[in-house]
Amino acid sequence: MSKIPVMEVFGPTIQGEGMVVGQKTMFVRTAGCDYSCSWCDSSFTWDGTGKHLITQMEPDEIWAKLKEIGGEGFSFVTISGGNPGLLKNLNEFVMLLKENQIKIGLETQGSKWQEWMMEIDELTISPKPPSSNMITNFYSLDDVITKLSSPEFEGNISLKVVVFNQEDYEYAKRIHQRYPHIPFFMQVGNDDTATEDNSMLISHLLTKYEELIEHVMKDNELKDVKVLPQLHALIWGNKRGV
Ligand SMILES: C[S@@+](CC[C@H](N)C(=O)[O-])C[C@H]1O[C@@H](n2cnc3c(N)ncnc32)[C@H](O)[C@@H]1O
Ligand SMILES: Nc1nc2[nH]cc(C(=O)O)c2c(=O)[nH]1
Ligand code: SF4
Ligand SMILES: [Mg+2]
Protein backbone atom coordinates (compact mmCIF):
# COMPACT_ATOMS: atom_id res chain seq x y z
CA MET A 1 0.00 0.00 0.00
CA SER A 2 1.18 3.54 -0.62
CA LYS A 3 0.40 6.80 1.06
CA ILE A 4 -1.91 9.54 -0.17
CA PRO A 5 -1.50 13.24 0.75
CA VAL A 6 -4.78 14.02 2.50
CA MET A 7 -5.76 17.60 3.34
CA GLU A 8 -9.04 16.93 5.09
CA VAL A 9 -11.67 14.27 5.63
CA PHE A 10 -15.15 15.52 6.53
CA GLY A 11 -18.83 14.78 6.51
CA PRO A 12 -21.42 13.60 6.27
CA THR A 13 -22.64 16.66 4.43
CA ILE A 14 -24.47 17.30 1.18
CA GLN A 15 -22.73 17.44 -2.17
CA GLY A 16 -23.23 21.13 -2.84
CA GLU A 17 -22.39 21.14 -6.54
CA GLY A 18 -23.24 19.64 -9.87
CA MET A 19 -24.73 16.38 -11.05
CA VAL A 20 -25.48 14.83 -7.65
CA VAL A 21 -26.25 18.04 -5.75
CA GLY A 22 -27.94 17.25 -2.46
CA GLN A 23 -26.41 13.77 -2.18
CA LYS A 24 -25.43 12.82 1.36
CA THR A 25 -21.69 12.23 1.18
CA MET A 26 -18.38 12.15 3.00
CA PHE A 27 -15.49 14.14 1.50
CA VAL A 28 -11.82 13.27 1.14
CA ARG A 29 -9.78 16.25 -0.02
CA THR A 30 -6.32 15.52 -1.37
CA ALA A 31 -3.41 17.97 -1.35
CA GLY A 32 -1.75 19.46 -4.41
CA CYS A 33 -2.92 20.87 -7.72
CA ASP A 34 -1.38 21.32 -11.17
CA TYR A 35 -3.48 24.50 -11.56
CA SER A 36 -3.58 27.71 -9.52
CA CYS A 37 -6.96 29.24 -10.34
CA SER A 38 -7.17 32.92 -9.39
CA TRP A 39 -10.43 32.34 -7.52
CA CYS A 40 -9.85 28.84 -6.12
CA ASP A 41 -11.99 28.35 -3.02
CA SER A 42 -9.67 25.56 -1.86
CA SER A 43 -6.32 27.24 -2.49
CA PHE A 44 -5.04 26.00 0.88
CA THR A 45 -4.63 22.62 -0.85
CA TRP A 46 -1.84 23.97 -3.07
CA ASP A 47 -0.62 27.46 -2.06
CA GLY A 48 1.32 26.40 1.05
CA THR A 49 -1.11 27.88 3.57
CA GLY A 50 -2.47 24.42 4.44
CA LYS A 51 0.89 22.64 4.49
CA HIS A 52 0.56 21.79 8.20
CA LEU A 53 -2.75 20.03 7.46
CA ILE A 54 -1.33 17.50 4.99
CA THR A 55 -1.24 13.95 6.33
CA GLN A 56 0.27 11.10 4.35
CA MET A 57 -2.29 8.32 4.80
CA GLU A 58 -2.62 4.69 3.77
CA PRO A 59 -5.97 3.79 2.15
CA ASP A 60 -7.05 1.82 5.24
CA GLU A 61 -6.21 4.81 7.44
CA ILE A 62 -8.45 7.08 5.34
CA TRP A 63 -11.19 4.45 5.54
CA ALA A 64 -10.78 4.28 9.34
CA LYS A 65 -11.05 8.09 9.52
CA LEU A 66 -14.21 8.03 7.39
CA LYS A 67 -15.77 5.42 9.71
CA GLU A 68 -14.63 7.36 12.79
CA ILE A 69 -16.41 10.55 11.75
CA GLY A 70 -19.19 9.14 9.53
CA GLY A 71 -19.97 5.99 11.48
CA GLU A 72 -22.56 3.79 9.80
CA GLY A 73 -24.27 6.83 8.30
CA PHE A 74 -22.89 7.03 4.78
CA SER A 75 -22.77 5.12 1.50
CA PHE A 76 -21.16 7.77 -0.72
CA VAL A 77 -17.67 9.32 -0.67
CA THR A 78 -16.61 12.28 -2.80
CA ILE A 79 -12.94 12.68 -3.61
CA SER A 80 -11.86 16.25 -4.32
CA GLY A 81 -8.79 18.41 -3.91
CA GLY A 82 -6.64 20.01 -5.16
CA ASN A 83 -6.55 17.70 -8.12
CA PRO A 84 -6.98 14.04 -7.11
CA GLY A 85 -6.20 13.25 -10.75
CA LEU A 86 -2.52 13.84 -9.95
CA LEU A 87 -2.45 10.74 -7.75
CA LYS A 88 -1.79 7.50 -9.57
CA ASN A 89 -1.91 5.52 -6.32
CA LEU A 90 -5.50 6.48 -5.49
CA ASN A 91 -6.49 3.18 -7.14
CA GLU A 92 -6.01 1.26 -3.88
CA PHE A 93 -8.29 3.62 -1.95
CA VAL A 94 -10.89 3.54 -4.73
CA MET A 95 -10.90 -0.27 -4.69
CA LEU A 96 -11.20 -0.30 -0.89
CA LEU A 97 -14.30 1.93 -1.08
CA LYS A 98 -15.81 -0.36 -3.71
CA GLU A 99 -15.16 -3.44 -1.57
CA ASN A 100 -17.21 -1.69 1.10
CA GLN A 101 -20.11 -0.98 -1.31
CA ILE A 102 -19.48 2.77 -1.22
CA LYS A 103 -20.48 4.89 -4.24
CA ILE A 104 -17.72 7.25 -5.30
CA GLY A 105 -17.82 10.80 -6.62
CA LEU A 106 -14.82 12.60 -8.09
CA GLU A 107 -14.12 16.31 -8.66
CA THR A 108 -11.33 17.06 -11.11
CA GLN A 109 -10.52 19.62 -13.79
CA GLY A 110 -9.75 17.00 -16.45
CA SER A 111 -6.08 17.89 -16.91
CA LYS A 112 -4.78 14.41 -16.00
CA TRP A 113 -5.95 10.88 -16.66
CA GLN A 114 -5.70 7.98 -14.22
CA GLU A 115 -6.89 4.40 -14.85
CA TRP A 116 -8.79 4.32 -11.53
CA MET A 117 -11.15 6.98 -12.94
CA MET A 118 -12.84 4.08 -14.76
CA GLU A 119 -14.12 2.92 -11.33
CA ILE A 120 -15.80 6.21 -10.34
CA ASP A 121 -19.60 6.32 -10.13
CA GLU A 122 -20.21 10.08 -10.48
CA LEU A 123 -17.35 11.91 -12.18
CA THR A 124 -17.39 15.68 -12.57
CA ILE A 125 -14.95 17.37 -14.91
CA SER A 126 -14.62 21.09 -14.41
CA PRO A 127 -12.57 22.80 -17.14
CA LYS A 128 -11.43 26.25 -16.19
CA PRO A 129 -12.67 29.46 -17.89
CA PRO A 130 -10.49 32.53 -18.68
CA SER A 131 -11.11 34.32 -15.35
CA SER A 132 -9.18 31.53 -13.61
CA ASN A 133 -6.03 32.56 -15.59
CA MET A 134 -5.58 28.89 -16.52
CA ILE A 135 -5.27 27.69 -20.12
CA THR A 136 -7.21 24.54 -21.00
CA ASN A 137 -5.13 21.86 -22.70
CA PHE A 138 -7.75 20.47 -25.06
CA TYR A 139 -5.54 17.51 -26.04
CA SER A 140 -5.65 16.30 -22.43
CA LEU A 141 -9.32 17.15 -21.96
CA ASP A 142 -10.34 15.42 -25.22
CA ASP A 143 -8.34 12.38 -24.16
CA VAL A 144 -9.96 12.19 -20.71
CA ILE A 145 -13.45 12.62 -22.16
CA THR A 146 -12.82 10.05 -24.89
CA LYS A 147 -11.74 7.48 -22.30
CA LEU A 148 -14.79 8.19 -20.13
CA SER A 149 -17.06 7.93 -23.17
CA SER A 150 -16.05 4.32 -23.82
CA PRO A 151 -18.55 1.56 -23.02
CA GLU A 152 -16.19 0.18 -20.37
CA PHE A 153 -16.90 3.21 -18.22
CA GLU A 154 -20.07 2.37 -16.30
CA GLY A 155 -20.38 5.53 -14.21
CA ASN A 156 -21.86 8.92 -15.00
CA ILE A 157 -19.89 11.95 -16.10
CA SER A 158 -20.69 15.61 -16.31
CA LEU A 159 -19.03 18.87 -17.25
CA LYS A 160 -19.28 21.78 -14.85
CA VAL A 161 -17.99 25.21 -15.75
CA VAL A 162 -17.79 28.00 -13.17
CA VAL A 163 -18.88 31.35 -14.59
CA PHE A 164 -17.73 34.74 -13.32
CA ASN A 165 -18.14 36.96 -16.39
CA GLN A 166 -19.15 37.13 -20.05
CA GLU A 167 -15.87 35.65 -21.27
CA ASP A 168 -16.35 32.68 -18.95
CA TYR A 169 -19.91 32.32 -20.22
CA GLU A 170 -18.67 32.12 -23.82
CA TYR A 171 -16.02 29.59 -22.78
CA ALA A 172 -18.68 27.48 -21.04
CA LYS A 173 -20.73 27.47 -24.21
CA ARG A 174 -17.73 26.33 -26.25
CA ILE A 175 -17.17 23.48 -23.81
CA HIS A 176 -20.79 22.39 -24.16
CA GLN A 177 -20.62 22.64 -27.97
CA ARG A 178 -17.40 20.61 -28.08
CA TYR A 179 -18.86 17.79 -25.94
CA PRO A 180 -22.61 18.05 -26.63
CA HIS A 181 -23.39 14.55 -25.34
CA ILE A 182 -22.01 15.14 -21.86
CA PRO A 183 -24.46 16.49 -19.27
CA PHE A 184 -23.57 20.15 -18.85
CA PHE A 185 -23.70 22.35 -15.74
CA MET A 186 -23.02 26.04 -15.26
CA GLN A 187 -22.05 27.05 -11.74
CA VAL A 188 -22.14 30.48 -10.15
CA GLY A 189 -18.65 31.75 -9.26
CA ASN A 190 -17.99 32.85 -5.69
CA ASP A 191 -15.89 36.01 -5.99
CA ASP A 192 -15.47 36.52 -2.23
CA THR A 193 -14.00 33.33 -0.82
CA ALA A 194 -12.56 35.10 2.24
CA THR A 195 -15.54 36.83 3.85
CA GLU A 196 -17.06 35.51 7.07
CA ASP A 197 -20.14 37.67 6.63
CA ASN A 198 -22.52 34.91 5.55
CA SER A 199 -25.69 36.94 5.13
CA MET A 200 -23.92 39.41 2.84
CA LEU A 201 -22.22 36.63 0.85
CA ILE A 202 -25.38 34.57 0.49
CA SER A 203 -27.52 37.43 -0.78
CA HIS A 204 -24.72 38.41 -3.18
CA LEU A 205 -24.44 34.82 -4.50
CA LEU A 206 -28.22 34.56 -4.89
CA THR A 207 -28.18 37.76 -6.98
CA LYS A 208 -25.39 36.30 -9.11
CA TYR A 209 -27.38 33.09 -9.49
CA GLU A 210 -30.46 34.99 -10.63
CA GLU A 211 -28.36 36.93 -13.18
CA LEU A 212 -26.84 33.74 -14.58
CA ILE A 213 -30.27 32.10 -14.83
CA GLU A 214 -31.66 35.14 -16.70
CA HIS A 215 -28.74 35.09 -19.11
CA VAL A 216 -29.14 31.40 -19.91
CA MET A 217 -32.93 31.58 -20.23
CA LYS A 218 -32.60 34.23 -22.95
CA ASP A 219 -29.93 32.28 -24.80
CA ASN A 220 -31.42 30.13 -27.56
CA GLU A 221 -28.04 28.47 -28.16
CA LEU A 222 -28.02 26.97 -24.68
CA LYS A 223 -30.84 24.51 -24.32
CA ASP A 224 -29.78 21.37 -22.50
CA VAL A 225 -28.04 23.01 -19.55
CA LYS A 226 -28.43 22.94 -15.79
CA VAL A 227 -27.67 26.15 -13.90
CA LEU A 228 -26.71 25.76 -10.24
CA PRO A 229 -25.21 27.69 -7.35
CA GLN A 230 -22.81 26.14 -4.85
CA LEU A 231 -25.54 25.00 -2.48
CA HIS A 232 -23.12 24.61 0.43
CA ALA A 233 -22.03 28.26 0.02
CA LEU A 234 -25.68 29.35 0.27
CA ILE A 235 -26.00 27.48 3.57
CA TRP A 236 -22.59 27.76 5.23
CA GLY A 237 -20.83 30.53 3.31
CA ASN A 238 -17.06 30.02 3.12
CA LYS A 239 -16.89 27.67 6.12
CA ARG A 240 -14.33 24.91 5.63
CA GLY A 241 -15.07 21.22 6.14
CA VAL A 242 -18.74 21.31 5.14
C1 LIG B 1 -11.80 23.20 -5.41
S1 LIG B 1 -12.12 22.29 -6.88
C2 LIG B 1 -11.23 20.77 -6.62
C3 LIG B 1 -11.36 19.79 -7.77
C4 LIG B 1 -10.63 20.15 -9.05
N1 LIG B 1 -9.35 20.74 -8.82
C5 LIG B 1 -11.48 21.05 -9.91
O1 LIG B 1 -11.22 22.25 -9.96
O2 LIG B 1 -12.41 20.55 -10.51
C6 LIG B 1 -13.82 21.78 -6.74
C7 LIG B 1 -14.82 22.58 -7.54
O3 LIG B 1 -14.92 23.88 -6.97
C8 LIG B 1 -15.03 24.80 -8.02
N2 LIG B 1 -14.64 26.12 -7.51
C9 LIG B 1 -13.42 26.47 -7.04
N3 LIG B 1 -13.40 27.75 -6.66
C10 LIG B 1 -14.65 28.24 -6.88
C11 LIG B 1 -15.27 29.51 -6.69
N4 LIG B 1 -14.58 30.56 -6.19
N5 LIG B 1 -16.56 29.65 -7.03
C12 LIG B 1 -17.26 28.61 -7.56
N6 LIG B 1 -16.74 27.38 -7.76
C13 LIG B 1 -15.45 27.20 -7.43
C14 LIG B 1 -14.10 24.24 -9.06
O4 LIG B 1 -14.33 24.79 -10.34
C15 LIG B 1 -14.44 22.77 -9.00
O5 LIG B 1 -15.56 22.51 -9.82
N1 LIG C 1 -20.66 20.46 0.56
C1 LIG C 1 -19.67 20.55 -0.34
N2 LIG C 1 -19.89 20.23 -1.62
C2 LIG C 1 -18.85 20.29 -2.48
N3 LIG C 1 -18.85 19.97 -3.79
C3 LIG C 1 -17.61 20.10 -4.27
C4 LIG C 1 -16.77 20.53 -3.26
C5 LIG C 1 -15.32 20.67 -3.45
O1 LIG C 1 -14.68 21.47 -2.78
O2 LIG C 1 -14.80 19.96 -4.32
C6 LIG C 1 -17.56 20.66 -2.11
C7 LIG C 1 -17.34 21.04 -0.75
O3 LIG C 1 -16.25 21.43 -0.31
N4 LIG C 1 -18.42 20.94 0.08
S1 SF4 D 1 -8.12 23.25 -10.48
FE1 SF4 D 1 -9.52 23.10 -8.72
S2 SF4 D 1 -8.22 22.92 -6.87
FE2 SF4 D 1 -6.88 23.46 -8.59
S3 SF4 D 1 -6.68 25.66 -8.39
FE3 SF4 D 1 -8.40 25.31 -9.80
S4 SF4 D 1 -10.28 25.21 -8.56
FE4 SF4 D 1 -8.51 25.06 -7.18
MG1 LIG E 1 -15.39 23.43 -2.43
Automatic annotation (TrEMBL):
Catalyzes the complex heterocyclic radical-mediated conversion of 6-carboxy-5,6,7,8-tetrahydropterin (CPH4) to 7-carboxy-7-deazaguanine (CDG), a step common to the biosynthetic pathways of all 7-deazapurine-containing compounds. This is 7-carboxy-7-deazaguanine synthase. Binds 1 [4Fe-4S] cluster. The cluster is coordinated with 3 cysteines and an exchangeable S-adenosyl-L-methionine. Binds 1 S-adenosyl-L-methionine per subunit. It comes from the Bacteria. It catalyses: 6-carboxy-5,6,7,8-tetrahydropterin + H(+) = 7-carboxy-7-carbaguanine + NH4(+). S-adenosyl-L-methionine binds at W39, C40, D41, G82, S126, P127, K128. One of its GO terms (molecular function) is lyase activity. Residues 20-238 form the Radical SAM core domain. Homodimer. Pathway: Purine metabolism; 7-cyano-7-deazaguanine biosynthesis. Its cofactor is [4Fe-4S] cluster; Mg(2+); S-adenosyl-L-methionine. [4Fe-4S] cluster binds at C33, C37, C40. Substrate binds at I14, Q15, G16, R29, S80.
